[in-house]
Amino acid sequence: MTDPRSIPADSVAILSALVSFDTTSRNSNLPLVEWIEEYLEHHGVRFTRYPGGDDGKWNLHASIGPDEAGGIAFSGHLDTVPVDGQDWTSDPFILREEKGRLYGRGAADMKGYVACMLAAIPDIQAMELSRPVHLLFTCDEEITCNGARELIADLQKAGQVPALCVVGEPSLMTPIIAHKGRFAVRVKLTGKSGHSSGPQHGRNALHAMGRAIAICADQAEWFATQGRRVEGFDPPYTSMQVGLAAGGAILNIIPEHAWFDVEWRNVPGDEGPQALEHLQNALAPLDAVLRDDNPQGGITYEMLVDLPPLSLSEEHLLTDVTRQITGSNTTGYVSYGTEAGIYQRGGMESIVCGPGDIAQAHRPDEFIAIEQLQRCDRAIRTFARRISATP
Fold first, then answer.
1. Predicted confidence (pLDDT) at residue 391 exceeds the cutoff of 80
2. Which residues are catalytically annotated?
3. pLDDT tens, 324-356?
4. Of 20, 58, 126, 381, which is least packed with CB atoms within 10 Å of its CB?
């Protein structure tokens, strides 16, 4: 394992070290957090480690310049998706270079950006900063995004909330100013068991689930045909689907339990909790049937995901500066979610712009082009100079 005190401030060299840590979301990220802390200490950067919400999971906040709120933040998550069952042509935890590409788990999503953040530290330290430059490292983005929720809450308590944030999810260094949210719940239906020969004595949870799923399908169609439309997204409306369902034990027993998972990919302006409330109202008659003469029956709801959408104005300073720095004449809308929506709701206006291609995320032989890292290296330094350096 590379000693962080001896590694050069070079994004490729740092990425090689970062990839060597298996930070699949099921694992603790502490070994990598400690490695980054040693790197920060070596460069004389102040930092604070915060609990990430789950045992063994941690967030880091580092800052350069004035010890205060405001300025600009660069944010990257440290966790990755698993490699289990994927057909890699080389060890996913050893960075491999071939024809201008760097292969390894997390190279694009998103340790490449984290490497650029760390590599930029000496050059940012050499700037005369009138506003701080913050570095945010989070856990569990790939499963819940709770790391970002915990971190923004901790920054609020500490009075250290940055004014602006660049979330470096892979976008080929194209500015992304809006993304959909994701809201998901597990709907649990409890009926009353009995022998299938006497259905009048039971409450069939699977029958109720079938009717509930049909209602979900009707609501999905409503969103598609009559709901809010935000042009730029594909599709330009909130989508809704049931993706998982189960219930029952054997065929001659009235099923007492059933459940299904439903998700919304909501455009800005549509709120997940409001969509859930609408579904709960529609399912209330089914809930009443399951509860009839059945004190333990009914429908309950378990929250799975609550990731808010992002919507940054085309006219915002951060949008304008990002266009200038990246040389992009356009801004993007994407249907996947990021931590940027959480940060925006926490008082930190955010944009998504990072190296690498999202098409490489989560795939075997994930890679990032060296040219993308080089573009990101230049961009981070320019952001810091434009936003935080003394004019």
1. no
2. 79, 141
3. 999 998 899 998 889 999 999 999 999 999 999
4. 126
Q: CA 224 to CA 229: how far, in whole Å? A: 9
Query: How would you label 344-373 residue by residue, b for 16+ Cβ within 10 Å and e otherwise?
Result: bebebbbbbbbbbbbebbbeebbbbbbebb
Please tell me the distance from the alpha carbon of residue 118 to that of residue 115, in angstroms, as a whole number. 5
**Strand-strand pairing, 349-352 and 194-195:** unpaired
> Would you give the DSSP letter of residue 249?
S
Query: Does position 2 have pLDDT exceeding 90, yes or no?
Result: no
C-alpha pair distances (Å), 243 with each of 200, 258, 332, 336:
30, 14, 27, 16
Whether the per-residue pLDDT at 307 is higher than 90: the answer is yes
Q: CB under 8 Å to 210, separation ≥6 — which residues?
A: none
Q: How big is the chain, counted in residues?
A: 391
Strand (E) or helix (H) holding 182: strand 182-190
Tokens of 241: 């689907």
Q: Are 356 and 170 in contact (CB under 8 A)?
A: yes
Would you call 296 helix, strand, or coil by DSSP? Answer: coil
The dihedrals phi and psi of 177, each to the nearest 5 degrees, come to -100, -10
